[in-house]
Amino acid sequence: MHPKPIHTRVVALITTLVACTAVLTACAGSSDAEKTADGATVFRYQGSASQVTFPELADDLGYFDKVALDWVGDTTSGPQDIQSAATGDTDFGGAFNGAIVKLAAAKSPIQSVVSYYGADKETFNGFYVLEDSPIRTARDLIGKKVAMNTLGAHAEFIIREWLAQQGLSKDEIAQVELTVVPPVNTEQALRQGQIDVGTLGSVFRQTATERGGLRELFTDESLYGTFSYGTYVLRKDFIEKNKDAVADFVQGVARAIRWTQTVPREEVIAKYKSIIAARGRNENPDLVDYWKSSSVAPGGVIADREFEIWIDWLKRNENLADGITPGDIYTNEFNPYANGTYPEDSDSNGLALQVAK
Q: Kind and range of the H or E element at 207?
């Protein structure tokens, strides 16, 4: 069975988002968040198996004073995670900024508060073919199968943007078959010829390329360089009614991000393994060995450009996001590396970094 055409899937996703937003009031949890016995505000969230999120790291480092995390399970994808936050099933979620713009275009009352993933020279997502594949250019992908972890998120936006930058028309791009394959199965599917191109990131990219026999077609880092691609969002009513706690949440996450950016990589890996072992979820801590970098701006500060690109993209390709500006979607108000609390080049405690002589 062939995947549905790209435009059909996008329309279906938009319809789902609009429907979700229409019933937001009915299905959302109360913005009057639960409190712990000592007065901390409970933030419900979804995690990721065998990984440590920045909020979890912040909690372990003791960076929260007014926040208590409540893990309710693991997320299946970024779009699912932010929809859970939008409907009140959780209090925050994270996703690719393009998916967040889509949700904002559907009038969902969410706001991004801190970046949490991106691309740099060490951490990125690549699109790979077999070494002897005849696929060399974007035009060679017409009629071919490209696998990714989910549709309507990072990988789909990136492949479609790359194809457009390489000169393919909308009709030609629609002929590229995008299909969902779990990351753990992508390398095998590629080597067995079930797909023509596989999207690989983190441990899956590193182990697959170490085994050889693959060729990099392009990466997300090659499109925009070092760039923050995803942010954490909260509902606007939750922010308004729990402003002090939200400020504490963002400063803690920002400082946790900065911690990973200013200590040796080995120290980050050791801390992540300690957190995974302590929570007792029967996870494989060895995957953490492949951690390379935070991949975001210092302290996760958000920049207009990180949303402008996807707002413009949706206007061009989906006739969405008219009238929306980056300022409608995100705020750096609570980030200590943006609001003047800490110098931009300081460490996780706001202290000036030592410059090697």
A: helix 202-211
H helix or E strand, kind and range, residue 199: strand 197-201
Residue ranges for the chain with pLDDT beneath 50: 1-29, 356-357
Residue written as token pair 């995390």: 69
Looking at the DSSP bridge assignments, the partners of residue 352 are 346
Asked whether the beta carbons of 190 and 130 are under 8 A apart, the reply is: yes
Q: Environment class of residue 347 by beta-carbon count within 10 Å: exposed (0-12), middle (13-18) or buried (19+)?
A: middle
> Which pair of structure tokens corresponds to residue 323?
């009238």
Are 249 and 232 in contact, with CB atoms under 8 Å apart?
Answer: no
Please give the Cα distance from 13 to 212 (Å, whole number): 36
Contacts for 143 with CB less than 8 Å, ≥ 6 apart: 175, 176, 177
Ramachandran assignment for 282, one of left (phi > 0), alpha (psi -120 to 50 degrees), beta (any other)? left
Residue type, 351: L
What is d(CA 96, CA 101) in angstroms, rounded to the nearest whole number? 9
Q: Can you give the pTM of this predicted structure?
A: 0.89
The helix/strand/coil state of 152 is: coil
Output the CA torsion 240→246→251→253 (10° steps). -130
Summarised one tens digit per residue, pLDDT across range 8-62 is 444 344 444 444 444 443 344 456 789 999 999 999 999 999 999 999 999 999 9
- pLDDT tens digit sequence for 91-126: 999 999 999 999 999 999 999 999 999 999 999 999
Q: How far is CA 22 from CA 18, 26, 47, 105, in A?
A: 6, 9, 27, 13
Is the C-alpha dihedral spanning 130, 133, 139, 144 positive or negative?
negative
